[in-house]
From TrEMBL:
Identification of the protein by name: Glutamine synthetase
GO biological process, one term: glutamine biosynthetic process
Record Pfam families: Gln-synt_C
PANTHER family: GAMMA-GLUTAMYLPUTRESCINE SYNTHETASE, TYPE-1 GLUTAMINE SYNTHETASE 2
Alphabetic keyword roster: Ligase, Magnesium
Family, as annotated: Belongs to the glutamine synthetase family.
SMART domains membership: Gln-synt_C (SM01230)
Cofactor(s) this protein requires: Mg(2+)
Domain GS catalytic stretches: 106-439
GO molecular function: glutamine synthetase activity
InterPro entries tied to this protein: Gln_synt_N_sf, Gln_synth/guanido_kin_cat_dom, Gln_synth_cat_dom, Gln_synth_gly_rich_site
Length: 439
């Protein structure tokens, strides 16, 4: 894409909440991006949900609110099909003036984990399944959208309904076209179990590209929904009594010869797979904040609501937090089923893949795989049940400390505590407005 021909374009990096922070720049910047011409305060990636500085953060007054350099990632520029004027977005990462990665940049956190795999001559292949809800946000509370065919508001669940998919055909056609333009590998789409809820799967690919595309897909979906006259949200629980939005990730690990290290030729998988599972389970309670980063997230993490609340694993069992899908042994993989749709994809993948590698490094065997309904099994290690407990666990968990830098752990904990305080000053019935299109 020739950026110099555009009226202007955007440069943006991902903040701790997964929001895009950056600038609109003229085409004359097209040949300056790799030289660090675009600068931004380090604190901009560690603001709260609304974009406010974090009180007491060492990135603000203590350090003079210093700037870093935004440098392009290897994802390259992408079009922005949800805007009326042809333009582009260049995904960026934040570095200091010596070129060192900024510890508070979520993409660098994932890069650090993937570097640990690369040191073993391994690479990670990952795919995400993203649930989102279409709704009408014009009133004092969210409500289901109007069916474009019937003109009536949706009222009921419509799991795997082709009629409901077809009713929103214009939106989904634009969404698939937008994915094609942006190079996002969208696969199957389905009508899910919630009212106005849908799911689209992204194809397996390099783990960093998977995180990039998940981040971009969320922006594309929200933007195109606005063009079609309704709202798309990835918030965990748009309606208190309806299904929540999850985001499952599948991953496998490939060695330098292109072999899946989880494949033993049979259905059970290798020791490496079981060690990776053990690592995922060990880090799960302490990583709850990554999988459930907002107050609204905890309305989804309740027993019996299709969102795992206990650290368990199983073969072909969707009630478990970690599932080993069946199928051809060459495709043996791990499905991590805990995260909500409101996650930061870079932090989520870093938490999952870092935990798996912790288990492999320790050669730890997991407990026996469960059978039956995980919600009815006593004694499973539990995820944090509320936001404050999740923050405290994240700060002190030794498995988390092996995955994320001390700076990122500190920055995220400070951010989330400020959000708790600020939500406490807002009427609970208005909280949904803060999450609606921000997460």
């Amino acid at each position: 894409m020739d950026l110099s021909t555009l009226h202007s374009f955007r440069v943006a990096a991902c903040d701790l909440n997964g929001q895009m922070r950056g600038k609109r720049v003229p085409p004359s910047y097209s040949d300056k991006l790799t030289k660090g011409a675009v600068r931004m305060p380090f604190s901009a990636l560690n603001v709260d949900l609304w974009g406010a500085d974090i009180a007491g953060s060492p990135l603000v007054f203590e350090s003079g609110d210093a700037d870093g350099m935004l440098l392009p990632t290897d994802r390259g520029p992408v079009p922005m099909p949800w805007l009326a004027v042809d333009t582009a977005l260049v995904p960026m990462c934040l570095h200091d003036d010596a070129g060192a990665p900024f510890a508070g940049d979520p993409r660098h956190a994932l890069a650090s984990v993937l570097h640990r795999y690369a040191q073993r001559d391994w690479s990670v292949v990952a795919a995400t399944e993203l649930e989102f809800t279409l709704l009408d946000a014009s009133g004092p509370q969210p409500q289901p959208p109007v069916n474009p065919v019937t003109g009536r508001r949706l009222t009921d669940e419509a799991v795997l309904s082709m009629a409901e998919m077809d009713a929103f055909d214009s939106f989904f056609t634009d969404l698939y076209d937008g994915c094609a333009e942006m190079g996002i590998p969208a696969q199957t789409a389905i009508s899910e179990s919630g009212i106005g809820q849908f799911e689209i799967n992204l194809n397996h690919q390099d783990a960093m590209r998977c995180a990039d595309d998940t981040w971009l897909f969320k922006a594309l979906t929200r933007g195109l929904a606005r063009k079609h006259g309704f709202t798309a949200t990835f918030m965990s629980k748009p309606y208190a009594e309806d299904a929540g939005n999850g985001m499952h990730v599948h991953f496998s690990v490939v060695d330098g010869k292109g072999r899946n290290v989880f494949d033993n030729g049979g259905p059970k998988g290798t020791d490496l797979l079981r060690w990776a599972v053990a690592g995922c389970l060990a880090a799960m309670p302490g990583s709850t904040l990554i999988f459930a980063p907002h107050g609204n997230s905890y309305t989804r993490l309740v027993p019996g609501a299709h969102a795992p609340t206990g650290a368990s694993w199983a073969y072909e069992n969707r009630t478990a937090a970690v599932r080993i899908p069946g199928g051809a042994p060459a495709a043996r993989r791990i499905e991590h089923r805990v995260a909500g749709g409101d996650i930061n994809p870079y932090l989520m993948l870093a938490a999952v893949l870092g935990a798996a590698l912790n288990g492999i490094e320790d050669e730890v065997d997991p407990p026996a795989p469960i059978t039956g309904n995980a919600y009815e099994i006593d004694g499973l290690p539990q995820l944090a049940t509320d936001w404050a407990d999740a923050i405290a666990a994240f700060e002190t968990d030794p498995q988390v400390a092996r995955i994320f830098s001390a700076d990122l752990i500190r920055f995220l904990a400070m951010t989330k505590r400020q959000e708790i305080r600020r939500f406490g000053d807002r009427p609970p019935e208005d909280h949904w407005l803060s999450y609606l299109e921000a997460v």
